[in-house]
């Protein structure tokens, strides 16, 4: 812990909090300062199991974390149904908020949280780690290079998970690829699989941007073996990767870039094969996420800057499209305009 | 030319005939015997440009090829609108028929051709070369290995081309992956791009097999850079390849197999990375296709066997699904039951 680092409190002992607490530890501008659970025993056990330093404060309630004046920011991996209550309360207690996804059950709920963050001048960011991997920035460079890639016209994505969970990533990646321009129309695919309780096990949707030519499709399923594919097609090239939300390895990640490919004479092969683009990462992407969040909090806390509006906007647009997919499912796979 | 080899006549001088004439030459049981074009000049030029041996007969009409009693089989790369006329005539002249895809404008049209082949005891096969690459059989082995792959539950495919052209491959690959079980429902994706003449430049569709859990989606476009992706997701594994219709190289082709993958502790990586499965090919896949076709023709011609019903069935099912996709487009992206 350095004197200047941002002090994080964690609310809840979710599995994902193990990964993020390590990320807070790895991020050079951040300190794990406190953890709170509904019971002090659970919090103690979680701290011991994960080798937390003795300096970490252990609280037997979420409120105690929020009332600790030394906590700068909270990481909140609570069940989605609790996000509005605890997210709004955290903002009112002037805690910067790193909120696990999916951020809320609907845009209306998310707006309550975002409005509380705005009103209290605290930074909001959702827990989409992959956005912070340097490979993601590298891919954006490739997408922007029209000679290499041309115009984007059909990002396509398939991934494991139910809509609210991995669907968040799918929609997030599609919006990322299209510079967060909302699609005009959202329509779910005919295959929708639910369990007996009505929980979505597998679903997909297709997006249409109308006149500008872009289209995107995603499919997410709890019934497939782990897969995290992202494929982007442009007029001049394409990018493929199979590990977009969690890279195979921490130290670097790669994607396949195909640009200017065509068929060889007689169509018996290709003129150009894809090249593997390898991008090193100094820190795991979740630590980069924490570092970026802590940097923004430092700017607010020490330099009097305003919270960065980019991150809440990304979350809100993702949620907005997620809501539209949900509505299309409700309507029996009918198209929904955004 | 060996004495026993099957003698092929080619109808028309299409670009693709250059590749297939080479394939006939490479296939050990086949001989390029004749080529016919609407003009003798065109046929002569095509033969010269492509280095045809002097022994190849050059005809200034399609009829002359069909009337040559030494021609065993015809390869027909004519425009799709001409397939019914010339396909039926070829069958009536007792010529075995290797027909370029798309086979017909509709199932009704294709049925006229298939019925003529049946009535005249001649072999029918469409020109889907990729089915003959040994990689394709290898992938089927992997798909059938439930330990490796589990149950197939969501083949997904994206490729370049308009519906009738590359859509044929997409639908064919989806049917291949599902052992030619027809989907229950077909629904086109909301993004449909046509040119001013109403020709489809980009479209896609999603298929649902109902209770058995399978789903598939394809997207094909003339607006993207060359891409030929096929991705198959099972409960235990997945297969990825990016060159499914035309392998990057002739001598071998590969696919990535991921089986039993899971996340590493803390979800900071994967327990298993995909492995590249390399499959050698003694001949280019188009030569393997010709060889298989000639083998069936030999069996009929010399051993008195009946034509193999597998190939016409594959073509017909592909056409049936293609028709349903076309109908869904006509209905404005409404689901169509098969």
From TrEMBL, chains A, B:
<dbReference type="GO" id="GO:0000166">
    <property type="term" value="F:nucleotide binding"/>
</dbReference>
<dbReference type="InterPro" id="IPR036291">
    <property type="entry name" value="NAD(P)-bd_dom_sf"/>
</dbReference>
<dbReference type="InterPro" id="IPR000683">
    <property type="entry name" value="Gfo/Idh/MocA-like_OxRdtase_N"/>
</dbReference>
<dbReference type="Pfam" id="PF01408">
    <property type="entry name" value="GFO_IDH_MocA"/>
</dbReference>
<feature type="domain" description="Gfo/Idh/MocA-like oxidoreductase N-terminal">
    <location>
        <begin position="6"/>
        <end position="125"/>
    </location>
</feature>
<protein>
    <recommendedName>
        <fullName>Gfo/Idh/MocA-like oxidoreductase N-terminal domain-containing protein</fullName>
    </recommendedName>
</protein>
């Amino acid at each position: 812990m350095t004197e200047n680092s941002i002090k994080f409190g964690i609310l809840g002992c979710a599995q994902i909090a193990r990964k993020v607490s390590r990320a807070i530890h790895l991020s050079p501008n951040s300190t794990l300062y406190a953890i709170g659970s509904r019971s002090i025993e659970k919090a103690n056990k979680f701290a011991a199991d994960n080798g937390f330093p003795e300096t970490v404060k252990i609280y037997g309630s979420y409120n105690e974390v929020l009332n600790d004046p030394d906590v700068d920011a909270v990481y909140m991996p609570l069940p989605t149904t609790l996000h509005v209550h605890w997210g709004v309360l955290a903002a009112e207690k002037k805690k910067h908020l790193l909120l696990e996804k999916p951020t809320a059950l609907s845009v209306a709920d998310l707006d309550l949280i975002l409005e509380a963050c705005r009103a209290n001048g605290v930074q909001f960011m959702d827990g989409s780690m992959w956005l912070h991997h340097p490979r993601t920035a590298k891919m954006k460079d490739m997408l922007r290079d029209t000679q290499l890639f041309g115009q984007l016209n059909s990002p396509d994505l398939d991934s494991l998970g139910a809509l609210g969970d991995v669907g968040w990533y799918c929609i997030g990646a599609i919006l990322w690829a299209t510079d967060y321009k909302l699609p005009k129309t959202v329509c779910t695919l005919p295959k929708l699989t639910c369990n007996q309780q009505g929980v979505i096990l597998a679903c997909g949707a297709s997006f249409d941007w109308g006149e500008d030519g872009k289209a995107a499709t995603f499919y997410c399923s709890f019934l497939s073996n782990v897969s995290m594919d992202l494929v982007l097609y442009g007029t001049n090239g394409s990018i493929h990767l199979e590990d977009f939300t969690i890279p195979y390895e921490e130290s670097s990640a790669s994607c396949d870039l195909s640009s200017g490919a065509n068929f060889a004479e007689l169509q018996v092969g290709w003129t150009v094969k894809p090249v593997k683009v390898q991008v090193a990462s100094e820190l795991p992407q979740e630590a980069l996420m924490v570092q970026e969040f802590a940097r923004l909090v430092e700017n607010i806390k020490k330099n009097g800057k305003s919270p960065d509006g980019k991150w809440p906007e990304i979350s809100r647009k993702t949620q907005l499209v997620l809501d539209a997919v949900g509505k299309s499912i409700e309507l029996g796979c009918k198209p929904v305009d955004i």
